[in-house]
Amino acid sequence: MVDCEFCKIVAGDAPSSLVYQDDRTLAMMTLRPMTRGHILVIPKEHADSLSNLGYNTGGELFKLGMKISESLRASEIESKGINFWLADGGAAGQEVFHVHLHVLPRSETDKIGLEGPRLDLDRPEMDSDAEIIKERLNDTEC
Known about the structure:
Elements: H1 5-11, E1 18-21, E2 25-29, E3 39-43, H2 55-74, E4 81-85, E5 101-106, H3 123-137
């Protein structure tokens, strides 16, 4: 994609602080980190959303995220915990429309959180939602 900043990085046409790359994935430091060591893991092939990303490539992103998490925990960068964050779509907070997994080292004092209202569903409502999702899941090949 011509206008995609991440595709420009993959092509070598934009700078990055590279952490890792292989044939299918790339990991780099993010420009606007929430904590020291905040890394983005991206597929080299452009996919604007998870629905346009192959399952194998998605698995590779997660696998690389796990390896990076292990490296962070073994380093001097504070990482008492690790969050993975992937926003899929504008309503989910996606700002760059090239799939990317945030690997976010955490400390007990960083004040980062996922907050919002919580639903109070009863068991029949949860069972109904589970059936709706299962029906579509059975139609999807993994």
